[in-house]
Amino acid sequence: MNNKSKFIFFLGVIIIFSILGSYICAQEKPGRDFILYSEYTNIKVEKGQTYDLDVKIINLGSKIEKISLNLIKDEEAKNWDVSLLNSTWKGFEVRKVELLTEEPDYSKTLKFHLVVPEEAISGNYKFILEGISLDQVLKKTLEFSMEVAEKKEVVEEETGNLELATKYPTLENPSGKEFKFNLEAKNNTEDILVCDLGISLPQRWTAYCTPQWRDERISSLKINQNSTENLTLTVVPPLFIEKGEYPITFYVSSGENTASIELKAVVTGTYKLNYRTETGLLNIETIAGEEKTFIIYLWNEGSSAIDNLSFFSTKPEDWGISFKPDKMNSLPSVIETQKPEQIEVTIKTPAQTLPGDYPITLTLAGTQDQKNIELRTTVKVPTKWGWIGVVIIGLILAILIGIFIKLKRR
Question: Hey, do 34-148+271-380 and 154-267 end up sharing a CATH topology, with the first three levels equal?
Fold first, then answer.
């Protein structure tokens, strides 16, 4: 085989592999996007306390992003200590993060660190976390709402010389969590008193009492003359309880000496959004230029309804993604409905889409919770184009073989 024959042969091989590559290996990724997310954005805080809330910054696009971060304080919270830290233990303040496009470095988890000053005025405060890309094309915000309540010390004294007091007579917890009230029982007499403990609870609730910082459960308490004993009252609500306010009365008595205190447990309910695809898998196959419809099952594992659910998507340019329905006013607990809701998702790819794998993100967002579904969409060429490609490759091979045989005879 002379040099001219070799050149023509290898040129043909290159052309064949180029055509095959355009059908098999070509891949295009979506544009740029990122999100800021925190599981808890509306909480009740106490004066003098420190809080750390997880914040996630996630790159949803195909390019490396450098995101500048800025915390904007409420105008009424000038003396509050707020910062964004890399961790809660000896963490350093973070002002910029770099997000890659692949796991595990496509997201970062930081801590929104908040110290409520003792002199804070009761009321609602808002803090905004702002994220801006290096070129300032992308900008996202995340709002935190903090409610500061007054510390109230409640002392209720009835006949006799016993007193009961607590700094926090009202506690708030989600459904399924215990309520722990720290109480003080004071003996104002000159005698040692052995007191019986009692409690009035809502139906199906349970409770027990322990000395503070100890685990032994007690039903009576000895208080020395002119002394105070500290107690922890643990109140356990039923497993599946509706949100609301539940009154509790705790009392101590020793002969004619009695005292009682009114407490309140506020159950806020729990909210846990969950999902499953129709197949249980997170990859979808579709054909360029055609529609692909599949079902997502959605349910709420919490005890209270999730309100104002909306559905969004992050997708490659010119793709179409629709939801049916695209909104839900309320998603009750699956304990109540006993079945999940069905969301019909339709993906439409442009006809010119190259074959390959494309990431898309479906966001299911309600007032109390949200979920992101990361899907890998595999796009294939229509069958007719596959056969056309095979015919073209066959023709090129036939021509090359003919040229090779002709040149060899020479």
Answer: yes
Q: Which residues, in sequence order, are CB contacts of 308 under 8 Å at separation 6+?
A: 327, 329, 330, 366, 367
* Residues near 373 by beta carbon (within 8 Å), at least 6 away in sequence: 275, 277, 282, 296, 361, 362, 363, 364
Cβ neighbours of residue 122 under 8 Å, at least 6 residues apart? 148, 149, 150
> H or E stretch including 85?
strand 81-85
pTM over 0.70: no
In this structure, the strands spanning 370-380 and 320-324 are unpaired
Specify the DSSP class assigned to residue 407: H
DSSP reduced 3-state for 265: strand
DSSP string, 307-333: EEEEEEEE--TT-EEEEESSEEEEE-B
Rounded CA Rg of the chain: 33
Listed by start position, the domains of the chain span: 3-27+383-409, 34-148+271-380, 154-267
Residue 28 neighbours by CB under 8 Å, 6+ apart: 316, 353, 354, 356, 358
Q: How far apart are CA 286 and CA 360, in angstroms?
A: 13
Q: How far apart are CA 365 and CA 311, in angstroms?
A: 6
Q: How far apart are CA 364 and CA 300, in angstroms?
A: 12
Instruction: Identify the H or E element spanning 335.
Output: helix 334-337
Tokens of 295: 């079902």
How far the first Cα of the chain sits from its last, in Å, is: 10
Report the CATH superfamily, name and number, of domain 34-148+271-380.
Answer: Immunoglobulins (2.60.40.10)
Cα three-residue angle 5-7-8, rounded to 5 degrees: 65
CATH class (in words) of the domain with range 154-267: mainly beta
- pLDDT 10s per residue in the chain (410 long)? 555 555 555 556 566 655 555 544 444 445 788 999 888 888 888 888 888 888 989 898 888 999 999 999 998 888 898 998 886 555 688 899 999 988 778 888 898 888 888 888 888 899 999 999 999 999 999 999 998 876 555 444 444 589 999 999 999 888 778 999 999 999 999 999 999 999 999 988 999 999 987 888 999 999 999 999 999 999 998 876 778 899 999 999 998 889 999 999 998 877 889 999 988 889 999 999 899 999 999 999 887 888 899 999 999 989 999 999 989 999 998 878 889 999 999 999 998 888 899 999 999 998 888 999 999 999 987 755 555 666 677 777 777 777 777 666 65
3-state secondary structure 359-378: EEEEEEECCCCEEEEEEEEE
